[in-house]
Write a structure and sequence with these properties.
alpha/beta; Cobalt-precorrin-4 Transmethylase, domain 1; Methyltransferase, Cobalt-precorrin-4 Transmethylase, Domain 2; 5-stranded mixed β-sheet; rRNA processing; cytoplasm
Amino acid sequence: MSTQSLFGTLYIVATPIGNLSDITYRAVQILTEADLIFAEDTRNTRKLLDHYQVVTPVQTLHEHNEKESVQKVLALLKQGQNLALVSDAGTPLISDPGFVLVSELRKSGANIVPVPGPSAVIAALSVAGIATDHFSFEGFLPSKEVARQEVLAGLSDESRTMVFYEAPHRLSATLADMELTFGAERVAVLCRELTKAYETIHSAPLSELLSWVNQDVNQQRGEIVLVVQGVDKSRRHDELTSFDKHLLKTLLDELPLKRASVVCARLTGKAKRSFYDLGMQLQKNN
């Protein structure tokens, strides 16, 4: 007898990211027939379950109790119970809790089955109009400016389309950092409140997108996905002269890198990104 036959099944169930009608028939069936549902926020999940008249019991499983819940879930599976894991919206484990649980259960031979459905990442890519043959999902960027700029600098040569989640109160700062790091002309798409009443999908070069967002506070609300075009490998950085490098070093004695790069670009007419990348290298060497 195989190890898996001794267990119940844990179903990883994708749920709507906004429009409740986007749930699959199979997902409703699994949630109805499960012995227990584990949810990131039971209050949020209960609204979905009530809409579809699902009365299955719900317990909390989130990032703060996930590790300690592993043995409990494993014990229930060993009793032959069938369980479901859902997040607040979309597919569990995608910038949501569940990785620790699934990883540990895999080691124990538990039977884990995906129930695919809505995902904000895929939804955004499908309407962005930016290449989807190769892409990277970067999740949420760091909330602190310096850390965020370091992560973006590490992605400055990424040729694949990049997908980010962002909190609305950080959207403007993130777009400003992207403009600095990726360049003002890099195309990005803001996908906001996907599948909801105020769904917005707006494509523009980063400089224009930043200006548009800053002029309309409504664009800094709700759930946000940013899809950013990868770097065009055929375009090279502006070549910096010894004078350019000396200018940047001098300004860095008095200004933060972000501001120094902007000033250098204005004085020389060369790309901010070229100065910013040089500055990052200089700081690493120091």
